[in-house]
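As agreed, record passed on underneath.
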Amino acid sequence: TVLLDFILFQAADAQVLENLRKKDVDLEGGKVRFRATSQRKERTLKLQAVQTLPLSRWLTEVDEAPDSAGDESLLFAGRLSNATEALRQKLRKLEPRLHSLRDLRASLIARWAAETDLKRVQYRCGFRRIESAERYVRESHKELKEAIRLHHPWK
């Protein structure tokens, strides 16, 4: 659930999750820092209340791992690809139209783009260029047009 929570609430992708360390999570402050990568800028985002208990348990597991490096320990050390694939398969059983976990991330970003200004979307997602956030505005307009086309009573 920790992995799914990061995707659903912070729009995290595999690249930033691979670099997430124990010290990047501040449970008391309710924040998580995603480090800069080749494609993303560094950003610090709020944790949702429902994330704190599962995340606290996960951090305890990381501490107890035999190869633990303390605060420098990677949260998903060597487990990310297996965990994402297992999660994708479970979610596909619930929603067959879900092709990848990127679809979940994209839907959250599209919702943010509809609800707030693009600079905030750019920061939350770690996009280096505002054009990356603008792409999700266009996508949400396409989805809206398609929904109107399908469900409008005067078609």
